[in-house]
Every structure is written in C-alpha cells, then in structure tokens.
Amino acid sequence: EKGGWDSFMDKEIHEDPAAVRNTLLGRFSAQGDIVLDEVRIEPEVFRAVDKIIVVACGTASYAGMVAKYAIEHWVRIPVEVELAHEFRYRDPILTPRTLVVAISQSGETMDTLMALRHAREQGSHVLAICNTQGSSIPRESDAVLYTHAGPEVAVASTKAFVSQIVAAYLLGLYLAQVKSTLYADEIHEVVEQLKAMPDKIQWVLDNVSSTVEAAAKRLVNSRSFLFLGRHVGYPVAMEGALKLKEVAYTFTEGFAAGELKHGPIALVEEGEPVVVIVPSARGRDVLHNKVVSGIEEVKARGAFTVAVAEEGDPDAERYADVVFWRPQCPTLLSPLVDVVSLQLLALDMARLKGYDVDKPRNLAKSVTVE
Ligand code: M6R
C-alpha cells in the first residue's frame, strides 16, 4: 500500500504535486474561466455574499488562514478564520449573506461539524472544502468543493493541506468572477500560475530534500524550535511548527515575525533553531527586508537560523545558516512550495528519532468527539 515508501507520510508528501494537479483538474472552461458546476449554490447567492467565515481545526485552519490573504485581495470582502471549536460559543454574527466555509480533510471532525450546523441554523450558507467523498461535513453542507488529494492515511496532514489551499483559491477566484472584482485576464493569469505549481513543488522534492535531511541531522537533538513568517508565510510557519510537534514531539512555537520583539525573542538563546519563511525580494521589498532583519536579530542572539527563501535571494544566503530554496513564484502561491520543505523536516526529524511517523502518540487521524 505504501508503494515502496517506508511510511505513508513520506508517500503523501511526495504526492503533494499530484494533490495540487488533481484538485485543479476539470475546474476551468477552455477560456480559463472557473467552472464549479458541482457547487450547488446559485451564482446570485454568491454575488450577495458580503463576508466569509472559515471554520476548521489544526492544519485545515492554517489553509484557511492562507486563503484569507488571497480571497480578501481578490474579492474585497472580509474573510475571518475561526477555529471551529471556538466559533459557536462566541455568538458569531451570521446572516444569509455570510458564506461559511468549512475545511476538513476527513469530513468527520466533530468540532467543525458542530460549527457548520450552528451556521446553518442561523441562516448562513455553508460550503465544505473536503477530501472525503460522502463524509458528514459535505453531507450536511449546502455545497461542497472536493479536494482531490486522494486518501490521506498518515495522521499528520500533508497533501491535504496543499489541496485545501488550492480549493479555497478556486473558490476565491470563482467569487471574483461572479462578483466581477477581477478582470477575466487577471483570473486567467492566476489560473496559469496555479497550473505551474505542481512542477515547482516537484522541484522542491527533487532539489531541497537533501538539504532538509542534513539540517534535520544537525538539529535532531534541539529541544525546541521557533517558526516565524509574515503575510502568507505566517500560517506556513504555524503549519511547520504543528508538523514538528506532531511527529517529532519537539516543542515548537509558530508566530508572526512582527511579534518577535513583542515577546518571543526572549526565548532565543545560543543554538536555538529558528525557521524563517522569507518573502520574495521581488515586488514586496518592505516585507522581505523586515523579515530579513528578524533573521539578523535572532542570529545576533545566537540562534541557528533556517530560511525558506526564493532561489538566489542574497540576503537569505548572507544571514541564514541553512536555506531551503523555493523556486520563483507569486507570493500568494508560495505556501504551496514552502510548506513542503517543512513537511520533510518534520518527517526527517521523526525518523531520526526512531518514531512512528504515521501514528504519532496521543493523536487520531480524525477527531470525532468535541
Ligand atoms: O480532518 P480534518 O481536516 O477536519 O482534521 C483537522 C485537524 O484535526 C487536523 O488537521 C490535524 O491538525 C492534523 N493532525 C494535522 O496534521
């Protein structure tokens, strides 16, 4: 079943490119317009949507956080991302014009199911982004957009995450199309960029794996790790931190790079590994420079720095002890490649420690209790 891989997690990370490719498949017209026939919500309902609330847990919630940056940018409506278990207990503001998007790999997460039930009771429309056909969450939603990542067996979610981002992006582009907040040409351009992503992910698998493995060997005995990022790099940092916790049992914290001086920098001491997601130096100079200065600050305090940065970024090379390169890609799509190195890092660390990477202690693949 593992098809030659020694764990499902390893196999499933290597299926990241296919998960993205298959989730894109059949969702465009010949002209490049987004076609979501399977989504049974009328275009008029979508046109009227004035707020999106993503409800999800764990990794799926980080996919939602990534999507927030893209959807707000493309559709110009507010997107909130809420942990499903927090959602219904705070009496959220829900109207028929609110679209609640429930993201779940398994489709059986009880917290997410309860959140969507609450949203429907309040008269909002619920769209599920789900990887498991016929599971409870899509069955109880008004509409479903399936991710086509294929069955995910390892407890740590990997290929489902990249496919959730792609599905949420398709939803965002579809909304931009029906609400005319982007020109058709702009949508087509993003579609082309999305179609190029599987090869870029493959590039990371082919070219970065050995650097990651060497870093894992160097850092395997570290007791804690910090992960930081900004903009879409922030949820990627959160996801990298979660992966390492789950399978390598390493104490990690992921946070927004801008928070460093508001507290977490106090944790940095000699040899502390700090993983930094560095935005491209092209276009978004301000953020790039700010994140690079974050690397300098932790380095000055003795941190061992690992940068995830765009190929050829001279600052990453100058300030980081190790660099996991990403091929050039638009900022909004960079999480699809950046997370891959972090998935590999968690896998390698767990393997070096001799842990069962597919079935980490205390965890279940789907959490069917509240
Ligand atoms: O099946 P779901 O996507 O609803 O699961 C949500 C979380 O339980 C899940 O992502 C969990 O955080 C994973 N173990 C992460 O690797």
Automatic annotation (TrEMBL):
Nuclease is among the record's keywords: no
EC id: 2.6.1.16
Chemical reaction(s) catalysed: D-fructose 6-phosphate + L-glutamine = D-glucosamine 6-phosphate + L-glutamate
Primary location class: cytoplasm
Top class in the EC scheme: transferase
Residues of the full protein shown: 260 to 629 of 629
Biological role: Catalyzes the first step in hexosamine metabolism, converting fructose-6P into glucosamine-6P using glutamine as a nitrogen source.
GO BP, sorted A to Z: carbohydrate metabolic process; fructose 6-phosphate metabolic process; protein N-linked glycosylation; UDP-N-acetylglucosamine metabolic process
Gene Ontology MF terms: carbohydrate derivative binding; glutamine-fructose-6-phosphate transaminase (isomerizing) activity
Name of the protein: Glutamine--fructose-6-phosphate aminotransferase [isomerizing]
The protein's assembly and partners: Homodimer.
Domain SIS: 41-181, 215-360
Origin: domain of life: Bacteria
